[in-house]
Amino acid sequence: MDWKEVASKARESAAAARDTIKEQIESVRKGGGFSFLCGFESKEVSLPLSVDNGKLLRIENPCGDITITGGHDAGNVTAHARFRGTGEDTKAKAEAYTLVIEENDSSVLIKQPDVTGLSVDLEIQLAGTPSIEIRSESGDVQVSDTRSGCRVATKSGDVRLKGLNGQIEISAQSGDLTVEDSTASSVQMDNKSGDIVLRRLTGSANVRTTSGDIAIRDCEMKTLAVDGVSGDVDVDLRTPISGAVSIRTVSGNTLLAVPDGCDTRVALKTLRGSVTCSIPLEDEVKAEGQVTGRIGDGKGTLDVSAVTGDIVVEMHASG
């Protein structure tokens, strides 16, 4: 049996199923899936928003997109609400709709009223730099230029974080996850189905996905741990390895590019695949599907392993 072909077909099937589910959910959420049956009523609400830097901004939005941007002179939240259905009851729901904003000593909470058939797209502008916590059932999440930490828990929808500074955590069931142009004390990303992308990130990261590709590009990582079940891993590091870098996959190829000047022990191993290391190693030992050795004094660790998949380690190309 060609395990590589089986894994490739499995990834293609999972990706196609994921895209179909996302399209169906989006159609239902926007009203398109039921428009020929029941239609919808809509209402827009805009309110000023003030969150002190020492407080946490919490957002609970079960159904709808969430967009947050920082760096504004004044804070504001705008809700674009849609109610599925027709008739006086639906109109009454739309007319009575308003955002629920609650504040205590430690946080400000934005949530939706408990009303059936409600979908709300939120647009939030922040004047300060509070930490953010988001909970969503269905809908895309985008947070940019807040210069703060962020935690996101979602079941269905893409997540894109940019211009953050602090602790980042993302837990998703289905959707693509992207973090870029950020400095993070730690990054935790856990995805069941969807691709993961890190770009121009400085800090430490722990990345896990069940079905999807992982791409880490132009990053400065103190430590990096990658775990994948089905999908390829492509890592291009901006600074030499001197800490711990661990990449483990069940079914998928791994390509790792590192700059000159690494100081690390190297262990590369695959059960059903090939190993290629174009970087000269001290104390190099080669065996079938395995290469070990060290670069420099070996202060750090580089450990790459796979069950089914090829492993390639090479020098980062200049420019």
In a few lines, what is going on in this structure?
It contains two helices and 24 strands.
Rg, Å, rounded: 23 Å
Main sheet makeup: 24 strands, mixed
**Termini gap:** 41 Å
Q: Give the helices and strands as they follow along the chain.
A: HEEEEHEEEEEEEEEEEEEEEEEEEE
Shape: elongated
Number of DSSP-assigned strands: 24
Mean pLDDT: 89
Architecture overview:
The protein is mainly beta. It has a domain at 35-127. Helix content is 12%, strand content 58%. It has two helices and 24 strands. The chain has helices at residues 3-30, 88-96; strands spanning 40-48, 56-63, 66-69, 76-84, 100-103, 107-111, 118-125, 131-138, 141-144, 150-156, 159-162, 165-174, 177-193, 196-211, 214-230, 233-237, 244-251, 254-258, 264-272, 275-277, 282-287, 290-295, 300-308, 311-315. It has a 24-stranded mixed beta sheet that branches. A hairpin with a 3-residue loop joins strand 5 and strand 6. The longest helix is centred in the N-terminal third of the chain and has 28 residues, at 3-30.
